[in-house]
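Team,

Forwarding the record for the chain on the shared tracking sheet. I've put the sequence and predicted structure together so nobody has to dig through attachments.
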Amino acid sequence: MEFFKVHEKVNAAVMSVVASAFLTATKIVVGIATGSLGILAEAAHSGLDLVAALVTLIAVKIADRPADADHTYGHGKIENLSALFETMLLYITCIWIIREASERLLFTHKHVEASFWAFFVMAISIVLDYSRARMLYKAAEKYNSQALEADALHFHTDIWSSSVVIFGLVCVKIGEFFPSLHFLHDADALAALGVALLVIGVSTKLGIRSIQALIDTAPHGMTGLIKKKVEDIDGVIDCHNIRIRNSGADVFIDVHILMSGRVSLAKAHSLTEEVEKAIQMLEPRADVTVHPEPYKKMKAKKKKSFKRD
């Protein structure tokens, strides 16, 4: 089962690399031929998507290695690092796009040829981005892979950015037919700015999520849900010291529970297993560790500590 899981994830990442390489090369050729900054901006975006897809492919392969003596929680954090790296690459792209678009709008005005090939390559881009985003989302959801989800998010954004570029090309074409609307020739550069703003928005959200995973930020509200779920179990007096950490596709949850100190070891073990199952109902992929504590012993500790004060 583990082999098929890794194979499917790697296969999704490989298909993403192939599609990125094809789109990058095609957009560069058509962008240079037509002089469209919008398409060249998309080519730069696709180029960094290619780098990001390669990084994702490497990350997915490493992340699924089993835990070892040096990485006792496994290698899943590499997926979070991969997503953060993709964010930085996208920010670099946006800086270049904004600089070039601003220069064209304020200083230079380059003729853009809104040819059939310009529209064709962007339409192909939308079709490919939609198909691979859908494929990556399915794999990401199935295996809880942040690296694949980051790739899918990028390509879903590409659909909107490609649509913005097509809108810019349509405006340029309208300007060719109606000279009085010559200002529409700037729509290509404005479309490039639109691409940059879209990418910045998505990249920021992705970067925040990646950082939260790297610094072990618990999912919002999950601690309270776990506490309530566990304390509803008959025999559990209290649930505390709840710790949650994500490592790629894996989730590690540690909890301490108070129970009667008079129960047998077998009964205590049975209760901890029940707690594990209850938590896994909230998070099926969780690796749960339960630390049982006797209730009377905890009360004694508190009283002793109070007297010392």
